[in-house]
Amino acid sequence: MTDRGTLWERISSSALTLEAIKSLHVPSQRFRISPARYPAGASFSGESRAGRVYVLAGSCRYAFGVTEFELVVGAFADVPEGGYQFQTVGSHEVEIVRVFELPREFWSNEPA
């Protein structure tokens, strides 16, 4: 199954930027927000927490077992926890922002 995610323009009239993403995930101490860039042709595997991936430039593919996400610039998707395979799609660099909620014990200035 391939999921194409959701287009940013469906939830916001503002441009998709790191600052716009940060403004959605508050309070900020509860979230890890990690921007990254990968060159055309990049491919790797990894492990991840459940979270959201935003694509600011280029296109990419995430495969989590039988679930695959093919995301283009301006799209985002909620991805599951677990092992994944990542690959850039096309001949351009990809710029993404990964967001996930931190475990409660890492939240600062919050009552337990």
Tally of separate helices: 1
List the uncertain runs: none
H/E element order: EEHEEEEEEEE
CATH superfamily: Jelly Rolls
How many domains? 1
Task: From the 3D structure, determine the CATH topology.
Answer: Jelly Rolls
What is the CATH architecture annotation?
Sandwich
Q: Percent helix among the residues?
A: under 10%
- How large is the share of residues in beta strands? over 45%
Query: What is the oligomeric state here?
Result: single chain
Q: Strand pairing plus helix content: what structural class?
A: mainly beta
The geometry reads as: globular
Give a brief outline of the structure.
6% of the residues lie in helices and 52% in strands. With 112 residues, the protein is mainly beta.
Would you give an account of this structure?
The protein has 112 residues and is mainly beta. It has a single domain (2-101), classed as Jelly Rolls (Sandwich). It has one helix at residues 18-24, and strands at residues 2-3, 6-7, 31-38, 43-48, 51-57, 59-64, 67-72, 75-79, 82-89, 94-101. The strands form two sheets. A five-stranded mixed sheet has the order 1-7-6-9-4, with no helix packed on it. Strands 2-8-5-10-3 form a five-stranded antiparallel sheet, covered by helices on one side. It is globular, with a radius of gyration of 14 Å.
